[in-house]
Structures are given as structure tokens and as C-alpha cells.
Design goal:
209 residues; alpha+beta; five-stranded mixed beta sheet; four-stranded antiparallel beta sheet; 6 helices; 33% helix; disordered C terminus
């Protein structure tokens, strides 16, 4: 909204996230300028303070890359023509081996967000649910602010953290990163010019009829 009222000229964030925003109905007046990968690119990973969890998650990720499940989940979330409220795969766990406390940030669609039905959804949520089903643990979600996610895991308030978390090694941080779960670049969300706005173009076409 700050872009529309010209409070800021644009917003730079994950290319995948801003492209997801601009592709949805009602946002036809917005577009994304991709930042060249040779200038800025990044990898996302999950985090934990527990090396056993990280090693288990990495092994699971390798197995679903081999089986094709990772690609299936990737295709669901990064095809921009897909209806974000369409039914999703079901991953269930009996929770017989306990629960996993997981810190997430819900303003990172399509990685993690809350659907219209109030249920957590997204690429990272599906990876998490499939992993939890694999290790037969239930998931206890801890919805935190972006700035709080890493400290929550570092201070052992959560066992695990997943969202679009950049893999950046900070000196003194007591967290471990998984292997990359997604590679991304940056994009700048800006307003289209009046000539580029599909709504304005449609109105002009109607006037010309």
C-alpha cells in the first residue's frame, strides 16, 4: 500500500515473494523488476540448534529429491497460475514420537502464510509436514516475527525453524543451517506506469469501441 500512495518508490524482497504478490488478482497495478543474479542471489535453509535434527532433515530432503516428491511440492507452489486456495497434498503423522516445536514467519508467501481458512500453508509448510510425517512427530507451530525467528531457535524456544531463511553465517550465532531448500534472487516491487496497467489499458480499449 505504501507503494500505491507513493510513500516509497518500491520494495525489494525475495523475487519469489514479490512475484507471488504481483501475480494475484487486485495487484495488476504492480510489477516486479528482477535484480540480476550476479548482483544478488541467495539460498534458503531450515535452522535448528540441534545437529541431529539438521542431519535428519538433510537426509530426508535428499530422499525426496531422489523420489521426486520435492519437485512435486515445488511445482505446486511456484507455478503462478495455480489457485493458492486449491486443495493441497495431505501429510499426516500420528505424533507417536512426540512433537516438533517449529518457528515460522507467516508474512512470507508463498513459503509460509495463513490461508483464508486460517490454516498454515506454503512451500515450507508442505516440506515441514512431509518431514514430520516421515519422523512421525506432530508439529507445534510458533508464529513469530521475522526478526524473532532465528533468536527463537537459538534460545531453544523452538526445535526447528523454517520459512524463507537466508543461509548467512553470523559470527557467534548458535544455530545450524540445513542444506539449501530453495534458491532465489531479489526483486523490486513497483507500480506499473499508467500505460502498463492492464486495468487502464482495458478501459482505454472500451472507450475506443
Amino acid at each position: 500500500e505504501h507503494i500505491r500512495i507513493h510513500k516509497i518508490p518500491g520494495f525489494m524482497h525475495s523475487y519469489t515473494s514479490v512475484n507471488y504478490i504481483s501475480s494475484h488478482a487486485g495487484n495488476e497495478d504492480l510489477k516486479v523488476l528482477p535484480v540480476p543474479e550476479n548482483i544478488y542471489s541467495l539460498q534458503y535453509g531450515a535452522i535448528s540448534h540441534n545437529i541431529d535434527i539438521i542431519e535428519s532433515f538433510d537426509a530426508y530432503m535428499s530422499s525426496i529429491e531422489d523420489s521426486g516428491l520435492y519437485k512435486n511440492i515445488w511445482d505446486i507452489w511456484f507455478d503462478i497460475t495455480r489457485d493458492s486456495e486449491a486443495p493441497l497434498p495431505e501429510f499426516t503423522s500420528s505424533g507417536s514420537k512426540g512433537s516438533l516445536k517449529v518457528a515460522i514467519c507467516t508474512d512470507t508467501a508463498p513459503f509460509v502464510y495463513v490461508g483464508n481458512d486460517g490454516i498454515y500453508k506454503g512451500f515450507c509448510i508442505d516440506l515441514l509436514k512431509s518431514y514430520a510425517a516421515h519422523i512421525d512427530k506432530s508439529v507445534q507451530y510458533l508464529d513469530v516475527d521475522t526478526k524473532e525467528l532465528i533468536p527463537y531457535v537459538e534460545n531453544k524456544k523452538a526445535d526447528f525453524g523454517i520459512s524463507n531463511i537466508p543461509i548467512i553465517e553470523y559470527p557467534g550465532r548458535k544455530i545450524l543451517y540445513s542444506k539449501p531448500i530453495y534458491e532465489d534472487k531479489q526483486g523490486i516491487l513497483i507500480l506499473r506506469s499508467e500505460q502498463e496497467n492492464p486495468q487502464n489499458m482495458s478501459a482505454q480499449d472500451n472507450k475506443g469501441v
